[in-house]
Design a protein that fits this description.
Largest sheet: 8 strands, mixed
Strand content: 15-25%
Shape: globular
CATH architecture of the largest domain: 3-Layer(aba) Sandwich
Low-confidence stretches: none
Order of helices and strands: HEHHEHEHEEHEHEHEHEHHHHEEHEEEH
Distance between the termini: 47 Å
Oligomer: single chain
CATH class of the largest domain: Alpha Beta
Mean pLDDT: 96
Strand order of the largest sheet: 2-9-8-7-6-3-4-5
Length: about 375
């Protein structure tokens, strides 16, 4: 094909290939153990596959309703009511999405206009800011301070302006593994009271919290729920990240606006997988047991690194473990991540990529959503450094 002579004024001039793609490709090229990108290396429950296959055989293979199949929306409503005491109407307040990333982009596109400001917390998951900038919004950065990654609500208050349209929160937090507490939600409610600010709550790791902590969902806080889009993900919960199925909760007026965009950028999500998930999730133990399942993996991985020179940071949720490597190297974290992949055969994510200015605390992120054999093999290599 001939080179194009079309002048392109990119909406995202600073955006290239995501670090997750870069590090996963480097891991594959080097034959390294991939603890970078956040996906399991083990299979989901065969019962989920059986339920989906039954839906296919039963003819559930055509377009479902735009908002999602009724049985899945009903199952979501029941789960949210049981966990958070929140009453969401399955018809008008729940929408099934093509994963959480689509849900987040759609929410931003539905509510953020050109020139609007959106407050995000750094280190910030990499899809938020490009979505804001694509629709002409302006990201405004609040800090989660190293090493505990707690929000400073007085700083957030100082960042508010008449142009603030949205605040994006993420709990449990990727990449840091920190959690928002009940008093954080109270602070957020007070900050947004009597405003038109929409809260976008990314809660995809809602079932992966440790040490007897409880996930503080925005859905459980009536005042915040009334102004919030809450996002979750079956991919994280049922070990099926490649299925790309998530959902959003929102009050009906907000959901009506969300669906106006959703129907044109996705329309709907594949039918048999929705039906399969709806059947599978009726057994609540399958999501209620997730915290213990991943807490065991966290402890196993932390034990692998106990005799290493990595300094482990606190991990209260998600399936990510942050670690300082200052005792091993003074390389910048991106350089260290590439070196570690090539020299030690373990791929990680450098945390500086989650900061707009590349702030580098010499910390990397490991994914422990892996088989114990994988984690043990990685541990052996990391202890040798």
């Amino acid at each position: 094909m001939h080179p194009s002579s079309i002048a392109i004024d990119s909406k995202l001039p600073r955006v290239g290939t995501t670090i997750f793609t870069v590090m996963s490709k480097l891991a594959a090229d080097c034959g390294a153990i991939n603890l970078s990108q956040g996906f399991p290396d083990f299979q989901a429950d065969p019962a989920l596959f059986d339920a989906t296959w039954r839906a296919m055989r039963d003819g559930r293979n055509q377009y479902p309703p735009m908002a999602g199949v009724p049985e899945l929306r009903s199952a979501i409503a029941d789960k949210v009511a049981a966990l958070y005491g929140a009453d969401y109407d399955a018809d008008s307040e729940i929408t099934v999405t093509a994963g959480a990333t689509q849900a987040i982009f759609t929410a931003i596109a539905a509510f953020v206009r050109s020139g609007d400001e959106v407050i995000v917390f750094e280190p910030v998951y990499d899809s938020y800011v490009p979505a804001i900038e694509t629709v002409g919004g302006q990201p405004v950065y609040a800090a989660l301070a190293f090493p505990d990654y707690r929000p400073d609500w007085e700083q957030v208050r100082a960042l508010l302006s008449p142009r603030t349209r949205m605040i994006i929160i993420n709990t449990p937090h990727n990449p840091t593994g920190s959690l928002l507490e009940a008093d954080d939600l109270m602070e957020l409610a007070a900050l947004t009271r009597d405003t038109d600010i929409v809260v976008l709550a990314d809660e995809v790791y809602e079932h992966i919290v440790f040490d007897a902590a409880h996930h503080q969902s925005v859905a459980s806080h009536p005042e915040l729920a009334a102004r919030s889009i809450v996002v979750s993900s079956f991919g994280k919960t049922y070990h099926i990240t490649g299925w790309k199925i998530g959902y959003v909760l929102a009050a009906s007026a907000l959901m009506a606006e969300f669906r106006k965009v959703h129907q044109f950028n996705v329309f709907t999500v594949n039918t048999p997988c929705q039906v399969g998930v709806a059947e599978y999730m009726r057994d609540a133990s399958r999501h209620l047991g997730l915290a213990a399942f991943y807490e065991h993996k966290r402890e196993f991985f932390r034990e692998q690194l106990r005799a290493s020179r990595f300094e482990l940071l606190t991990c209260r949720g998600t399936y990510f473990q942050l670690a300082s490597y200052r005792a091993i190297s003074d390389r910048p974290d991106r350089e260290f991540a590439h070196w570690l992949t090539r020299a030690a055969g373990v791929a990680v994510i450098p945390v500086s990529v989650f900061y707009r200015d590349g702030r580098d605390d010499r910390v990397v992120r490991f994914c422990f959503a892996k088989q114990e054999a994988t984690l043990a093999a990685a541990g052996e290599r990391l202890r040798a450094l």
